[in-house]
Amino acid sequence: MATITTEIPVTLSKDEILRYSRHLIMPEVGMEGQQKLKAARVLCIGTGGLGSPLALYLAAAGVGTLGLVDFDVVDYTNLQRQIIHTTADVGRKKIDSATDKLTAINPYLNLRTFDTRLSSENALELFRDFDIIADGTDNFPTRYLVNDACVLTGKPNVYGSIFRFEGQASVFATEDGPCYRCLYPEPPPPGLVPSCAEGGVLGILPGLVGVMQATEVIKLILGIGDPLIGRLLLIDALGMKFRELKLRKNPDCPVCGTHPTLTKLIDYNEFCGIRGEEKPVANGVPEIQVEELKRRLDAKEDIFVLDVREPHEYQICNIGGHLIPLNDLPKRVNELDSSREIVVHCKMGGRSAKAVAFLQQSGFTKVHNLAGGITAWSERVDPKVPKY
Amino acid sequence: MSKIHIPTPLRQYVDKQSTVDVKADTVAEAMNALVAKHPDLRRHLYTEEGKLRAFVNLYLNDEDIRYLQKEATAVNEGDSISIVPSIAGGAQDEPVVIPSAARDLGFCPKCHERS
Questions:
Q1: Is A67 helix (H, G, I), strand (E, B) or coil?
Q2: What per-residue confidence (pLDDT) applies to B47?
Q3: A228 to A154, A185, A235, B14, B27: CA distances (angstroms)
Q4: Considering only alpha carbons, which residue of chain A is nearest residue B93?
């Protein structure tokens, strides 16, 4: 169970008593519970899809001190699910946008914002001033970083994760409970994580899972109910089915096991097989720029444009290329004429680079990757092609 | 018959089904039957050496098979097996692609397994 340190006895003002009256009249919360909430310090990692509902509900519920860590800026494509941000906030820092909404909901909130990327250098120090950490991040390196820093600082990690129509939630790194590494000792290598074609997320799903995280945070603070410790909740939004799996603390866990080998934070990008933020353009694969492709197509040169995205992406926009999704390429390679010059494109150039490497390996010699994909085409050649 | 629950990211390799029914006496037999029926699934679940990948967990009903008899765990009529891969969450754009020849051909730079 979380250890909430109530050093200074907190009292509620008359206005606060009215504000929280629907909590106060429930014996499970009551004045004592509301004071626990006010004394609690919760750190939300990320103010995106999961962090939006999480922070909004925690602020409304009367959590006294709320920390927000985010380095990002509100993007137009965030608005489909990141409900703490509005259209007018596009281009603003997420923590500034979130601060406005949270203080508007609850002026009694002590908000602490950290305009930074959570890293191995700052995580332990950041976590030290909080009682509970809520992980609303979206990538594997940060997941492992949050987990390890929670174990090392002894803070519970209220975990939620989403993908397309599916979510997972649990509470990790409590004193006796398992941690994220007990469940998944290693991350998937980057090549095996679903590509953008298979990515995406149903907008309501982070709402569902983020509110579950908020529920678990509140329960930990109040010390009521059965927290999701040692349980992994699987959420299937399409089937609207919830399943629960048992989690066990792994005695051989490198971070929370009986003989931990990991006693300080590591380089999590390296651990997850990611080196820097390299552009999705593969070295050694011959490239063509969008302007050159346009010029040569206009000049009626014989160029075969191959689009390796998925059919539903082709429906969003296309430049008339022949569609063979990357995964189908090996079995449909006979549709291509190796004597012709082929330019391969996808959304941004990552998948098409793989396709070019595959075609070269299959004996194609006149094959180029369209640098920057259809996104670059939209930006630099034809703005009528929508970006997505 | 036992039911294998297929998580969203892997449904594309099993004709978009959310569950697949198999006849098997152990978890290993069930998984073999599954990948025999849907060979594209194999590389996503197993390494070249045939080992279950570290970020994929198998559950028999609600128990992690690592704490039962692993893949030798007996499966009874009506049991369900869940494949539970790790998901990072969020809705990133194209994932970071590591520009190395190995990566381009779908090899993991760390373990050099074909992905």
A1: strand
A2: 87
A3: 17, 20, 13, 31, 27
A4: A196
CA–CA separation, A157 and A170 (whole Å)? 8
- Catalytic residue flag (residue A346): yes
Domain of B81, CATH number, reads 3.10.20.30
Span of A290-299, A334-343, B86-95 with lowest mean pLDDT: B86-95
pTM of the model: 0.83
Nearest-Cα distance to chain B for A283, in Å, is 5
Tell me how crowded residue A36 is: count the other CB atoms within 10 A of its CB: 21
Show which of residues 34-93 on chain B sit within 8 Å of chain A, judged by CB atoms. 44, 53-55, 57, 59, 62-64, 67, 82, 84-93
For A31, the domain range is: 14-271
pLDDT in tens, B11-50: 888 999 999 999 999 999 999 999 999 998 998 899 889 8
Question: Among residues A271, A297, A329, which one ends one of the domains?
Answer: A271
pLDDT of B103 reads 37
Backbone angles phi, psi at B2, to 5 degrees: -120, 155
Q: Check A44, A179, A317, A346 and give the catalytic one.
A: A346
The pLDDT tens digits for B43-82 are: 889 988 989 988 899 999 999 999 999 999 999 999 999 9
CB contact under 8 A, A168 and B87: yes
Nearest C-alpha of chain B: how many angstroms from A161? Answer: 4
- Domain annotation covers residue B115: no
Q: Decide if A361 and B106 are in contact by the 8 Å CB cutoff.
A: no
Closest residue to B44, CB basis, from A192, A234, A361 = A192
Q: Please indicate, yes or no, whether residues A256 and A316 belong to a single structural domain of this protein.
A: no
Q: Select from A258, A71, A235, A97 the least CA-distant residue to A159.
A: A235
Q: At what angle do helices A373-380 and A290-298 cross, to 10 degrees?
A: 70
